[in-house]
Amino acid sequence: MRQGRHFLQIPGPSPVPDRILRAMDMPVIDHRSAEFGQLGRTVLEGAQKVFQTSGPVMIFPSSGTGAWEAAIVNTLSPGDKVLMVETGHFATLWRQMVARWGIDVDFLPGDWRRGADPAVIEERLARDTSHALKAVMVVHNETSTGATSRIGEIRAAMDRAGHPALLMVDTISSLGSADYRHDEWKVDVSVSCSQKGFMLPPGLGFNAISEKARAAAKTNKMPRSYWDWEEMLKPNANGFFPYTPATNLLYGLREAIAMLLDEGLDQVFARHQRLAAATRVAVNHWGLEVLCQEPKDFSPVLTAVLMPPGHDADQFRKVVLDNFNMSLGSGLSKVAGKVFRIGHLGECNELTLLAALTGVEMGLSVAGIPYRAGGVDAAMTYLEQRPQGNSPAHLKVVGS
Ligand SMILES: *Cc1c(COP(=O)(O)O)cnc(C)c1O
């Protein structure tokens, strides 16, 4: 038994704010009642604002992996060809799932230290003069590496190549934390889930879809039932679901959307960027290396840190957990044991982050890892020089 709160600093599931926990502490209601219809309409409309879309958003009782599958089975057919990019572990897993559905994947190799390169995608699409590629599928925020892909630039590259492929994006760990614009970037299917930027427990999967994606679903040849978009969209029109929905998670979702919109999406994105930048200041000061090598692709959601050679990241994570009751993210597959990940998403502010960084710095000392002391001070200085929430200008707006 440890006193005080556990620091869950992994990049999802993220800590669930008290306000959301209280909102979910409700009796389950009849999911065919008028009261439920009201809840359903509120969350379906609210989710559109978070995806920045005027098109439909669907909510499945599922993990993010289920929402990946929904994107595939509603749009593609066995034997189709798609273009994917090896940004890291999650892109690799999505690719495996696509392949299991009998789809031929052109997998652009990557070194796990940057996002997808729009120029390489453009070149590949320009060569595909027969338009054999049916979709470009990219992970927006690669949670295994802390590198984001610039989706707006990828869309521009697709437009320049004049290619009609669908654009499908995994925004699972970026939605509600990093700027994401489904409509403006003309994304056809955006895939997300509940336990990252939405600050909810696991259990909800999302698909936001374009008209082009919905049209593809009318003619594609993949069998499906549970994931079928049209089955979902019919009752959704009145706020209902084709089967029993995750009612209490939807109460939480209603609260999460209110929290994101009350703060303002732009402020949410700016807060994540500020905290991510402060984290990198600390990491650089310690003399450790951030895994992502492309500054344009630095993730606002998490920072993956390389261990010095000869030191095991999982051993370090264990020292931090045992001594300071904090969970850090592990290195996944190719970078297992080589990196640890600091999540700074969702319900995270300056002091939460500084406490987490303090735990990391103390852990480096306890674990006997060579580092330069003072990383937390450097992060403090960075944040002191960029006051946000309590600046006089802000207080004036709040008070007026
Ligand atoms: C977490 C995550 C997933 C998997 O989501 P599950 O809910 O665990 O199925 C997929 N992609 C990315 C980028 C993620 O961060």
Fill in the keyword field for this structure.
single chain; 400 residues; alpha/beta; Aspartate Aminotransferase, domain 2; Aspartate Aminotransferase, domain 1; binds pyridoxal-5'-phosphate; aminotransferase; L-serine-glyoxylate transaminase activity
Write up what this structure looks like.
This is Serine--glyoxylate aminotransferase. Belongs to the class-V pyridoxal-phosphate-dependent aminotransferase family. Its EC number is 2.6.1.45. Its cofactor is pyridoxal 5'-phosphate. Keywords: Aminotransferase, Pyridoxal phosphate, Transferase. With about 400 residues, the protein is α/β, with parallel strands linked by helices. The chain has two domains: about 20-260, Type I PLP-dependent aspartate aminotransferase-like (Major domain) (Aspartate Aminotransferase, domain 2, 3-Layer(aba) Sandwich); about 265-395, Aspartate Aminotransferase, domain 1 (Alpha-Beta Complex), CATH 3.90.1150. About 45% of the residues lie in helices and about 15% in strands. It contains 14 helices and 14 strands. It has helices spanning about 20-25, 35-50, 65-75, 90-100, 120-125, 150-160, 210-220, 230-235, 245-265, 265-285, 315-325, 350-365, 375-385, 390-400, and strands at about 5-10, 55-60, 80-85, 105-110, 135-140, 140, 145-150, 165-170, 190-195, 205-210, 290, 300-305, 325-330, 340-345. A seven-stranded mixed β-sheet has the order 2-10-9-8-5-3-4, with helices on both faces. Helix 11 (about 315-325) packs across helix 12 (about 350-365) and helix 12 (about 350-365) packs antiparallel against helix 13. The radius of gyration is 21 Å and the shape is globular. It starts with 6 loop residues before the first strand and ends with a helix. The structure holds pyridoxal-5'-phosphate (PLP). Pyridoxal-5'-phosphate (PLP) binds near residues 12, 64, 90, 170 and 202.
